[in-house]
From TrEMBL:
Belongs to the UDP-glucose/GDP-mannose dehydrogenase family. Pfam families: UDPG_MGDP_dh, UDPG_MGDP_dh_C, UDPG_MGDP_dh_N. This is UDP-glucose 6-dehydrogenase. Keywords: NAD, Oxidoreductase.
Amino acid sequence: MTQIKKICCIGAGYVGGPTMAVIAQKNPQIQVTVVDINEERIAAWNNADLSKLPIYEPGLDTVVAEARGRNLFFDTNVDKAIDEADMIFISVNTPTKTYGKGKGMAADLKYIELCARQIARVAKTDKIVVEKSTLPVRTAQAIKRILDQTGNGVSYQILSNPEFLAEGTAIQDLMNPDRVLIGGEESDTGREAIEALASVYGAWVPQERILRTNVWSSELSKLTANAFLAQRVSSINAISELCEASGADVNEVAKAIGMDSRIGSKFLKASVGFGGSCFQKDIFNLVYIAKTYGLDEVADYWEQVIIMNDFQKRRFAERIVTTLFNTVNDKKIAFLGWAFKKDTNDTRESAAIYVANDLMEEEAQIHVFDPKVTEQQMLTDLDYLNTRSSEANRKHLTVHQDPYTALENAHGIAVLTEWDEFKTYDWQRIYNKMQKPAFVFDGRNILDRKQLEQIGFEVYSIGAANIK
Ligand SMILES: NC(=O)c1ccc[n+]([C@@H]2O[C@H](COP(=O)([O-])OP(=O)(O)OC[C@H]3O[C@@H](n4cnc5c(N)ncnc54)[C@H](O)[C@@H]3O)[C@@H](O)[C@H]2O)c1
Ligand SMILES: O=c1ccn([C@@H]2O[C@H](COP(=O)(O)OP(=O)(O)O[C@H]3O[C@H](CO)[C@@H](O)[C@H](O)[C@H]3O)[C@@H](O)[C@H]2O)c(=O)[nH]1
């Protein structure tokens, strides 16, 4: 069996960084080099101060501290790392296309293709190339054609090894994955490549959790897993509106259905809408592929998950406006949280961005406190929507370092992220310093509603009988 001695990972992002850190920690005999064209990001990965790593993930600093400089390296020299490696992970971003055919739907594969061409140009020895990025089904074929036809005559095996970690729990998920999926060519050399990668994971993952399959099934399983997860969130969010209208309570409904072992209790938390860099992108990708094959009913079925999610975000913003006597013009609306979920500094597709944007359209003043997201990031997120000028966004957004100043004098508080610390705040003190009536819109259902009501707050929770 091929023994892997050197691994290169192209892309030092939310997936490449943590995944390679864990692989290196668990395989001290393998040299792992993570490369990126983003010099600032690489410098941050190399920062001696572990609180300055480019991404925030609980437990990541400890793993990096153990492996970095021993057998884990972060570098900008992509060619050198490719040249030396026996196994190359491609872990670059695959965003939704913003131009041309498939705009707003298809995955933009330009970064993947650039990687393939770079590998083809540089490689002088046989390589196993591992797709770690999430890709449309049959992308491996395109990568193989580029490598075989433009390369230096060396031989390549392409594996699909999608990543299932969730942000905020990345290290936990990597240490103890439900499964590791490896798709490869159905041939002797294909199977040998699969086993080489399986042995890397075998350092800490039990063999029965390492699934071997063909490349197309592996690629499609990743999109399908995300589509199913997102679909559960949209399903419970659809029911949340019905609960509000009918007097049922979505938490009770989720509990009751979740105890059915066929349904299961996870991913049934009603919310202001799912965010993150993956769910929407991957469903659009699935929808686009289905349309490409002429499968319109399949495409429409999955697209509804996104339509429901957009509606849920909009509905939350509209509820704030109607509750605040149909106007938020010049009112202070305080946001607790901006990240797309707790325990991450990632804001991609966060519901907070869209809710803020809708409220700014109504001329509200948004004041935000998030424990991990910077002001610069929030402004970048708003500017990216292109709804209004940067100056106008700056006029409507104030970012606070202290939650109590963010909440002082607010007409309404909206909880956008489920950070644990929000539950422990001194809510009496907050109430005393707010405009009255004091409204709380709990977009994550994390606060103790009864306690808040006793203090005097008027509370709107997702999927409950609410203030009208
Ligand atoms: N974020 C997640 O939780 C998650 C989980 C599972 C799978 N995925 C998938 O993994 C892939 C990466 O996601 P991410 O969140 O880590 O993205 P990211 O944007 O955080 O990181 C990607 C990195 O790749 C670098 N890059 C792009 N082109 C390059 C090139 N040619 N050479 C060198 N570096 C290059 C970028 O500079 C960037 O730092 C995506 O396909 C995503 O769908 C993400
Ligand atoms: O019951 C729930 C569960 C999640 N969410 C929201 O859904 C979004 C996504 O959450 P989560 O799936 O936990 O985080 P991600 O990091 O986006 O991880 C998803 O996307 C990754 C990228 O593909 C996959 O690897 C993971 O398996 C998959 O869970 C977040 O906004 C959550 O707040 C809810 O609203 N209710």
